[in-house]
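Exercise: predict the fold of this chain.
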Amino acid sequence: MLDYETLDSIADIYLPLLGAISLTVTTITGITGRWQLLGIQAGALLTGLLIAYGLMFIDDYFRLWPLMDLDYSTHTAVALVLITFLIITLKQYVLFWISSLVLYILLMLYQGYHTLADITTTAFVIGLIVLPGALLFFRGSLKYDE
């Protein structure tokens, strides 16, 4: 089995890697001149990340998760935003994206970064906010995604 530090390094690279892939997707959209789709993708990505980090700041200020003896999982929130973006933009890899998220969650649990309750409450709140927004952002983009 890999040691804690090696697993920690793997966990540390996951979100930057998802971010780099997401930026590559939007860059390719821009290079191909699909400006309307680029605006939709960039808007959705930025909005999702603002929500994830905005909730982190709200939780830091109001101490909402600690009121329940929990911890807001920024890692979970950002991962969900990026995975949602990648599932919508690179649909053919949906099983890969979902598998990577499940493995990341299992790694966070194994490493003791967060509890299952931390992760599920964060995922629930982010899902309530991000998923309807993602559907609105991308509903009209499918005709441009040919």
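Check your answer against the key: Residues 142-146 have pLDDT under 50 and may be disordered.
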